[in-house]
Amino acid sequence: MANTPNFLRLISLFQLFFIAPSFAQQSFRPKALVVPVTKHASTLQYVTQINQRTPLVPLNLVLDIGGQFLWVDCDTNYVSSTYRPARCRSAQCSLARSTSCGDCFSAPRPGCNNNTCGLTPDNTITHTATSGELAEDTVSVQSTNGFNPGRNVTVSRFLFSCASTFLLQGLATGVSGMAGLGRTKIALPSQFASAFSFHRKFAVCLSSSKGVAFFGDGPYVLLPNIDAAQLLTFTPLLVNPVSTASAFSQGEPSAEYFIGVKSIRIDEKAVPLNTTLLSINSEGVGGTKISSVDPYTVLEASIFKAVTEAFVKASAARNITRVAGVAPFEVCFSSENVVGTRLGASVPTIELVLHNQKTIWRIFGANSMVSVSDEVLCLGFVNGGEKPSTSIVIGGYQLENNLLQFDLAASRLGFSSLLFGSRTTCANFNFTSTA
Ligand SMILES: *[C@@H]1O[C@H](CO)[C@@H](O)[C@H](O)[C@H]1NC(C)=O
Ligand SMILES: *[C@@H]1O[C@H](CO)[C@@H](O)[C@H](O)[C@H]1NC(C)=O
Ligand SMILES: *[C@@H]1O[C@H](CO)[C@@H](O)[C@H](O)[C@H]1NC(C)=O
Ligand SMILES: *[C@@H]1O[C@H](CO)[C@@H](O)[C@H](O)[C@H]1NC(C)=O
Ligand SMILES: *[C@@H]1O[C@H](CO)[C@@H](O)[C@H](O)[C@H]1NC(C)=O
């Protein structure tokens, strides 16, 4: 794509403009869509559900906030009368930024056709990528008015990539692929927004039980009648110019969402850090990203050391006793002197200071401490070692019960802070359908 002349890109945009209206089938135009997001107990993956194919089949998919697109296993039980492979050099293929062209040397079936546009589906949990054809099929999800799910709506030519069954290795049982919500034009948020002409925004509210994700703008109402869209603080989303995928072509930017953490404070005291690590360098290394596929926040080794030392010190000042680590956590405490509060265990507050001193993402006990037994609480951060590609990866446990809104058009992230402070949780969307 890097070498594609500009006029070709213009043509593909132009074609998109004319293709888009045919994606949506019905005259009813939803304002937003809603899907459940359930945490899988043993793998700690967040699993969502959408319906695909004709006739429709409910699919469980691992939710990947920074994932490039939807990919599904087409080798096992893929039956659909509306499956269509995308051809090489088609408008769909350039929308997917692909210039590759694939053939398949066995009988034609979904995932195996000649002269098809090739993509690289990525299992971002195991960091394994393979090649697969770009295809279109019907997708159906529930619309919402922000309060309840409403009627189901269909996108007739939803783009996704096929993968082989082996790519599912490492994913929760019963899952048939991954749902990528990243920055690309064929990730779920952009395709839904163009199919239904709504704002290029989506929101994710993860829970240790059943959370929720919305495509489109708020309200995002959680019981008892709290609109989390009204609770947001905003910070710019940053683009990493170098892809962070397992396989990619030169010049491809990352599909993941980065934010600018400028410093970290613990109980309002700045932690000494090598600030070079906090920005993204020209090779795409460094910075801070948001990830639903890392169960816990991962910190580059020197940041991990500085943050945990400061946390242990601030805990000692609160008379909280350190005990031996419990894998994967290195820093654990006796729960003896830790009292429970509305915001979770009363431990030092970790603050991520963002683009200015007033914009702070606060991590309270409910998001920092993992209870590993009745007696032991661990700091839910893990050591990412030296020279990881991203210095700070804010993982799933730290995102739970915080509503995050990704606004692609304005390139900004809205974050609610811990919803317990507003007397609600991410498990409080009313999934009773009014359709
Ligand atoms: C693709 O073309 C090759 C060579 O013409 C042929 O052997 C093969 O069966 C074809 N595959 C499909 C899936 O049609
Ligand atoms: C609408 O979608 C939901 C959730 O995917 C599903 O449970 C329900 O059966 C669908 N309703 C209809 C009428 O297809
Ligand atoms: C800070 O990190 C950068 C990037 O890894 C490294 O090149 C530099 O030597 C570090 N500086 C210090 C003082 O450790
Ligand atoms: C600290 O904890 C110990 C052991 O639980 C207790 O005996 C002591 O009184 C506490 N001190 C303070 C200052 O809270
Ligand atoms: C959930 O929504 C349904 C349908 O609007 C409504 O009847 C029900 O009272 C709601 N539940 C709660 C707990 O408010």
UniProtKB/TrEMBL annotation:
Q: Which CDD domains match?
A: xylanase_inhibitor_I_like (cd05489)
- GO MF annotations, alphabetized: aspartic-type endopeptidase activity
Keywords assigned by UniProt, alphabetized: Secreted, Signal
UniProt GO BP: proteolysis
Q: Where does the record locate the signal sequence feature? A: 1-24
Q: Which Gene3D superfamilies does the record cross-reference, listed alphabetically?
A: Acid Proteases
Give the protein family: Belongs to the peptidase A1 family.
Principal location class: secreted
Q: Which SUPFAM superfamilies match?
A: Acid proteases (SSF50630)
Say which domain of life the source belongs to: Eukaryota
Its localization reads:
Secreted, Extracellular space
Q: Name one GO cellular component term.
A: Golgi apparatus
Q: Is Signal tagged as a keyword?
A: yes
Which organism was this protein described from?
Answer: Vigna angularis var. angularis
Q: Which Pfam families match?
A: TAXi_C (PF14541), TAXi_N (PF14543)
Q: Which residues form the Peptidase A1 domain?
A: 46-416
- Which PANTHER family does its entry note? ASPARTYL PROTEASE-RELATED, EUKARYOTIC ASPARTYL PROTEASE FAMILY PROTEIN
Protein name as catalogued: Peptidase A1 domain-containing protein
